Amino acid sequence: MAARLFAERGYHGTSIGDLAKALGVQKGSLYAHIESKQDLLYEAMREGAEAFHAALDAVPDDLPAGERIRLALRAHLRVVAEQLDVATVFVREWRYLEGDRAAEFLGERRRYEERFRALFRDGRERGELRTDLDDQAAARLVLSAANWAYTWLPAGADTDELADRFYAILADGIRGYATPR
Amino acid sequence: MAARLFAERGYHGTSIGDLAKALGVQKGSLYAHIESKQDLLYEAMREGAEAFHAALDAVPDDLPAGERIRLALRAHLRVVAEQLDVATVFVREWRYLEGDRAAEFLGERRRYEERFRALFRDGRERGELRTDLDDQAAARLVLSAANWAYTWLPAGADTDELADRFYAILADGIRGYATPR
DNA sequence: GCTCCTTACGAACGATCGTTAGGGTCTAAG
DNA sequence: CTTAGACCCTAACGATCGTTCGTAAGGAGC
Known about the structure:
Two copies of one chain form a homodimer.
Chain A (H helix, E strand, L loop, with lengths): L1 H8 L6 H8 L13 H21 L7 H18 L1 H8 L8 H26 L9 H14 L10 H14 L9
Helix pairs in contact in A: 1-5, 3-4, 3-5, 3-6, 4-5, 4-6, 4-7, 4-8, 6-7
The first copy, chain A, binds a DNA duplex through loops.
């Protein structure tokens, strides 16, 4: 609930009064449920982290590397589209977390990126991907594209199809003379 | 000057008092130079737009499509690294522009994205890139990666090398059996 | 029936917000 | 010397911020 407003107007752009009004309640009443505004931001971040990790968990690990990457991309984009609010907080508003919670977020993000990178590394090591692949750069390329999607994703877009389009480009490159599928 | 603080703490997270202190001045004194806080955000956005467009202007148009894309990626990443403040405002803080200025930004971004997309479309139409290339998706993939870079770019990173790494992945794909270079 | 806990209210708190006003100091042109 | 304008000061403005307070209604468990 709070995540929606944070995503819309930003953390500092959303007042406790705004949140209370959205809930149909006086602003003082909110403090029966939270200790501070920061708590709401923290909860939204945690929700986002959980959603992204859960989506990645659902990718089977007995598939070829390419397929796993395609499915991971689908999973990530689906979270962005279906849980846009918490996803937005996770990718953009986390910066306003204070104290240990900011560090906790960074750890969470690092862990997620590492899981993503492993998809590429494993694929390379098993010989399913190019042997000279820069897996760090590849993971960042994909994750960046997926993270940025929320800025232009139209509501109700088919994210699976979009993920497949990205993957098609990524798999064979933009140059001609495509390798056989 | 203001862009730095906006990039660091966000627009709403930066007070006029903060800006004044950074300039070694009382906050009331700022209003001899600006009409409102919004003006500072607007100026930073305009600076960012100009920097990105100027960087793209410097890409020669008598090169093969692949080279132009590689250079455009270099140019974009260089702006992000060397003018991180205005670049950050352009990609993230623009949302707090009010009234016509928000619309003006959207037009500016659209124009920039269109210029980027044209690189891919032209390359495809001239037969220098895959004939089945989805130029819209490709442009978004590249621009997203470039835009997101500011979140993890280490200070003093070699952005040209990074751009080339991205391009290498993009050109030939991640799969094995690379096309001959 | 009594007590406890949750939830909510309305009012108020001190702090900080963006902005304005009035007055002062300096510099450069007339 | 005078004047105009640029620049900065201090002080204050009304508004809004996040948070706290005392109180009260309602339900659950004894």
